[in-house]
Amino acid sequence: MRGLLLTVLVLANIATALLIVRNRHEHRQAFVALTRLEKARDTLNIEFGRLQLEQATWAESNRVDQVARVQLGMVFPRTEDTVVLRR
């Protein structure tokens, strides 16, 4: 009886140790995946900041005005060309 109890306790101890090893391994894998994802997030945040800066540059009013004048040949209407409609 005593030998059976000792065997059960030893087997339970070994099973617990194996479960701890498995859990630590899974934890390490999850941590590596988390680190990889954080690095990808940081890279994407940097790229997003660059794209926001580029968008702000392209949308700047002086640039839009220059493109309208040079490429599209647009000009501001003269006062005499302006018509006001009233009801």
TrEMBL record:
Signal peptide: none
Keywords per UniProt: Cell cycle, Cell division, Cell inner membrane, Cell membrane, Membrane, Transmembrane, Transmembrane helix
Membrane topology: Single-pass type II membrane protein
Subcellular location: Cell inner membrane; Cell membrane
Pfam family, one: FtsL
Biological-process GO terms, alphabetical: cell division
Coiled coil: none
Main location: membrane
Subunit: Part of a complex composed of FtsB, FtsL and FtsQ.
Protein's job: Essential cell division protein. May link together the upstream cell division proteins, which are predominantly cytoplasmic, with the downstream cell division proteins, which are predominantly periplasmic.
Family assignment from sequence similarity: Belongs to the FtsL family.
Protein name as it appears in the record: Cell division protein FtsL
Species for this entry: Thermomonas beijingensis
